[in-house]
Design brief:
Elements (H helix, E strand, L loop, with lengths): L9 H11 L3 E2 L1 E6 L5 E6 L2 E6 L2 E7 L9 H9 L1 E6 L5 H6 L10 H5 L3 E2 L8 E2 L4 E13 L2 E13 L18 E3 L5 E3 L15
Antiparallel strand pairs: 1-11, 2-3, 2-6, 4-5, 5-10, 6-9, 7-8, 9-10, 11-12
This protein binds flavin mononucleotide.
Keywords: Flavoprotein, FMN
Cofactor: FMN
InterPro entries: Flavin_Rdtase-like_dom (IPR002563), Split_barrel_FMN-bd (IPR012349)
Length: 202
């Protein structure tokens, strides 16, 4: 079966895109507004896209035709954010922070999470997340109601117990959550991870 995008409306396209491009990591983004209110929300249109310079990208939508989601607005106004990775332990909290609260509401408080100071940016890190990536705005490309936010990574905080004996981050110790289509998720564990070396050129 072939599904031609010219026959689909935006809602159907969203459903199809997010069902076939899987699994997606979740950028759990903390920001602080120009007024000083903490904000936290998850975004799975998210990827690391360059190492030199170190860049990641997140695609954030709008609340209405003219009103950007709080995370986009805050990054635009302050130029700073933190991407916190989502693990099994904080799954419920992540879900709470996806509720479209008003911008005066601090989602850290709503979800019972602990904000801790970052090194380079004003936006706080989520203490309960084992990986926090401090970023500054590199560029925002607005396409229709979407904001494609390119962030430059300034520093990464990793919890000590997820490092292996060589000092590398061991992903299988993290139990990171991935987003699938609809309300489905997947989990990275030691059991469902495997190694495959690249073949040598003959
Ligand atoms: C797992 C998950 C992934 C999401 N991914 C996105 C996304 O990539 N882009 C987006 O605009 N909204 C996404 N959302 C919805 C936002 O989290 C939601 O609109 C949130 O209220 C935005 O908060 P803010 O206004 O504080 O920025 C996602 C929600 C969940 C639960």
């Amino acid at each position: 079966m072939e599904i031609d995008f010219k026959d689909l409306n935006p809602k159907q396209i969203y459903k199809l895109m997010t069902s076939v491009i899987v699994p997606r990591p979740i950028a759990w983004i903390s920001t602080v507004s120009a007024e000083g209110i903490n904000n936290l929300a998850p975004f799975s249109y998210f990827a690391g896209v360059s190492s030199d310079p170190p860049l990641l990208i997140v695609s954030i939508g709008s609340k209405s035709e003219t009103v950007k989601k709080d995370t986009w607005k805050n990054i635009e106004e302050t130029g700073e954010f933190v991407v916190n990775m989502v693990t099994r332990d904080v799954l419920e909290e992540m879900n709470i922070t996806s509720i479209p609260f008003d911008e005066e509401i601090d989602e850290f408080e709503k979800a019972g999470l602990t904000p801790v100071s970052s090194k380079y940016v004003k936006a706080p890190r989520v203490k309960e997340s084992p990986v926090n990536i401090e970023c500054k705005k590199y560029e925002i490309i607005q396409i229709g109601k979407m904001g494609l936010i390119l962030g430059e990574v300034l520093t990464v905080h990793v919890r000590d117990d997820i490092l292996n004996e060589k000092g590398y981050v061991d992903t299988t110790k993290l139990e990171i959550i991935g987003r699938l289509g609809g309300a489905n998720y997947c989990l990275i564990t030691k059991e469902n991870s495997f190694e495959m070396k690249r073949p040598d050129k003959e």
